[in-house]
């Protein structure tokens, strides 16, 4: 019996460990509506998928001088478009990686998408829409859902 | 749902304890959980109260509603964090709508004048304007289906329509009277699918929602959204309210159509 009890305790411990993982898989965002606009698809409108792709490459080159080259490309795009309750310009619950990944892109890939701009950008109006020039890189801000994302584009000329 | 959660836990226990754990133990583990849920009760008066409120809501020609909401979101450490938002709607049916959504992280507005829809983020100072359908009802659907934008407090536009059939409600009961500020509202509890929700409805012959609480019971973390409403029914709203005029230094950008892959 004693052995049986201890195995039970073990089992319960295992359950408590497993539960947070399940929660994480569900995204942990509260539903904000009872009913769905799209009943046919029986889609949970509130179930936004959040895909964080953090590519952090850290290259330390030590020679006579100490040169640190940090090249962080932070792609953080909510594929369903952000909800109304999401932030405009930063993530409310950012991972440590996302916080430190201030975008410092010298040559970003055309078509890549980011949630934040590097510092010192200048808006440029062309053909009725706005671009942001940040050094040699051009971004086109767009609403994806209700949040703004920036797509790296060729210079609009 | 409780039953399902229990069954889930039991099967995990059964798996992990396989070999040593007998049937007796599994039962003991079950006993340590809350008592098994009784069969769902579906009180007619709770359904009728919802229907009365919905009918009144749909009969409004215009309204202003302000809402404060607290919305849970699980952080990386497994803690539920509450985010507060204030939403204001000014609506003149059938084809005019203004909304503002303000929280510590965003300050957004939207304008719909029957022809165009504009989304304006004050913080970043970007706006996007698209052609809009002819009615508020169609706008709600178009924004969702085409742009992946779900209006805040969507239920206010869905109750009393085909999108909110009471047949979907499996359990309904009257909880009791509740005092919310200076108002007495009647509290009801409903369950449909994986959604457990509670609605507080104002008394009198023109009932409106006072407060709404929603829990996604399929999410083990049980994140909750709670929103309270303050109404000005049949409010007079100036036509200019619905017209977007780009502020100085605001920048026009595009509103992306949601791709098919994003809509499943």
Automatic annotation (TrEMBL), chain A:
Keyword annotations: Signal
Keyword Signal among record annotations: yes
Domain of life, source organism: Bacteria
Signal peptide stretch: 1-25
Descriptive protein name: Uncharacterized protein
UniProt organism field: Jeongeupia naejangsanensis
TrEMBL record, chain B:
Record keywords: Signal
SUPFAM superfamilies per the UniProt record, alphabetical: Prokaryotic lipoproteins and lipoprotein localization factors
Signal peptide residues on this chain, from the entry's feature table: 1-23
Descriptive protein name: DUF2092 domain-containing protein
């Amino acid at each position: 019996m004693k052995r049986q009890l201890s195995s039970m305790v073990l089992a319960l411990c295992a359950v408590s460990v497993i539960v947070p993982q399940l929660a994480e898989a569900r995204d942990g965002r509260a539903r904000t509506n009872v009913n769905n606009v799209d009943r046919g698809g029986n889609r949970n409108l509130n179930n936004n998928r959040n895909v964080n792709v953090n590519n952090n490459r850290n290259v330390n080159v030590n020679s006579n001088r100490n040169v640190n080259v940090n090249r962080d490309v932070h792609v953080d795009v909510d594929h369903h478009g952000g909800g109304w309750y999401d932030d405009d310009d930063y993530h409310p619950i950012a991972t440590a990686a996302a916080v430190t990944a201030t975008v410092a892109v010298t040559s970003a890939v055309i078509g890549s998408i980011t949630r934040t701009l590097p510092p010192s950008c200048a808006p440029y109006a062309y053909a009725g829409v706005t671009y942001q020039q940040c050094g040699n890189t051009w971004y086109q801000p767009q609403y994806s859902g209700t949040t703004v994302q920036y797509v790296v584009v060729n210079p609009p000329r | 749902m409780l039953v399902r959660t229990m069954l889930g836990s039991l099967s995990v226990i059964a798996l992990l304890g396989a070999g040593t754990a007998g049937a007796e133990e599994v039962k003991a583990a079950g006993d340590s959980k809350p008592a098994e849920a009784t069969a769902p009760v579906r009180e007619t008066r709770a359904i009728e109260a919802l229907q009365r409120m919905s009918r009144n809501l749909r009969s409004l020609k215009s309204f202003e509603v302000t809402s404060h909401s607290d919305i849970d979101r699980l952080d990386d450490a497994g803690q539920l964090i509450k985010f507060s938002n204030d939403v204001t709607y000014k609506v003149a049916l059938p084809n005019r709508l203004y909304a503002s959504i303000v929280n510590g992280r965003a300050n957004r507005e939207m304008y719909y004048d029957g022809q165009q829809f504009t989304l304006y983020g004050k913080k970043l100072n970007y706006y996007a304007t698209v052609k809009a359908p002819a009615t508020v009802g169609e706008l709600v659907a178009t924004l969702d289906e085409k742009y992946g934008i779900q209006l805040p407090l969507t239920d206010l536009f869905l109750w009393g329509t085909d999108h909110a059939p009471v047949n979907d409600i499996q359990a309904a009961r009257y909880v009791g009277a509740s005092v919310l500020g200076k108002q007495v509202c009647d509290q009801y509890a409903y369950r449909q699918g994986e959604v457990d929700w509670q609605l507080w409805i104002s008394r009198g012959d023109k009932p409106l929602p006072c407060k709404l609480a929603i829990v996604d019971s399929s999410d083990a973390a049980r994140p909750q959204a709670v929103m309270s409403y303050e109404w000005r029914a049949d409010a007079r709203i100036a036509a200019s309210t619905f017209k977007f005029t780009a502020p100085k230094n605001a920048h026009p950008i595009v509103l992306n159509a949601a791709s098919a892959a994003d809509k499943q």
